[in-house]
Amino acid sequence: MFSLPLDLLQAGTGGDVILDPGQGGTVYISGTDLRKFIEDPDGGNITYQLVSGHLPPGTNLNAKTGRITGRSPDVDATYTFTIRATDHHGKYADGSFSIDIRERDQCLSHPCQHGGSCTDGFNGFNCTCGQDYGGSLCETNCPTNPFGIANSKKTIPDAQISAHFTLSSQNAADGRLQSSSGWIGAGTGSWLQVDLGEMKKVYTVATQGYRSSSYYTLTYTVQYSTDGNNFKYIEDSTGGHKAFAGSVNYDTVVKHYLTPPVSARFVRFLPLSWHSGGKPGLRVEIYGC
């Protein structure tokens, strides 16, 4: 007898047999009572062969058992085919089948978090996230998600942190938030820059001073760029260069939320003023998605 895996069978209407291959959608085999397809009255072995048409992609016919197994694509499609069952005397019978695949709506489980909207797609879905959220499921709170400059994470490698007009032998890569030292600029015109490695949406910047009571930045501006050559300033409500308040001492972390967030690969911190008697010291982190 032609058979199918019992764990995939479901009861249908009008004599139909329904195959449920799982996440890929539901498969229907209509118009034939598979239990009466063919039997060998002698009880001998039967071999099965696809003689015309096509099975759904991802499924296969077992020549010895007659079982069709596999997982079909998540698309609306119809496949018509004929299977021949041959006994050990060489006698055979043919059966024709039509399999209708109905695409599963991937958004029915409401996978997008924090109010994100779901769009069903081919074998998957896409989430459109609301303000301040990102990630494939809108699971990430972007303003509090660090890109990994901080000394505790170091997702951003040293080679992607650079500086201009640095004091003495100070190292730009020491300008990580919570590092044991920090970066120090020589004065006006100094800057500390981070290459995020790819385009990101930047929501928040955070700074500390150099780990010394004399070297911390009081105010600074922020530039951003998509290519590392052409930079724009973060602007204030009047369209001017926004001046961000820095540290009130060398160790306090001060964060600023950008309104609106900006899309960038390169972010540059430019000290405007610093503690009297010292130089502009910085340790930084950037947050976003």
From TrEMBL:
Record bears the keyword Protein biosynthesis: no
Xref: PROSITE patterns: ASX_HYDROXYL, EGF_1, EGF_3, EGF_CA, FA58C_1, FA58C_2, FA58C_3
Annotated F5/8 type C domain residues: 142-289
Residue ranges of domain EGF-like in the record: 103-139
GO cellular component: membrane
Matches recorded under Pfam families: EGF (PF00008), F5_F8_type_C (PF00754), He_PIG (PF05345)
Gene3D superfamilies in alphabetical order: Galactose-binding domain-like, Immunoglobulins, Laminin
GO molecular function: calcium ion binding
Record keywords: Disulfide bond, EGF-like domain, Glycoprotein, Repeat, Signal
Disulfide bonds: C129-C138
Protein name as catalogued: Uncharacterized protein
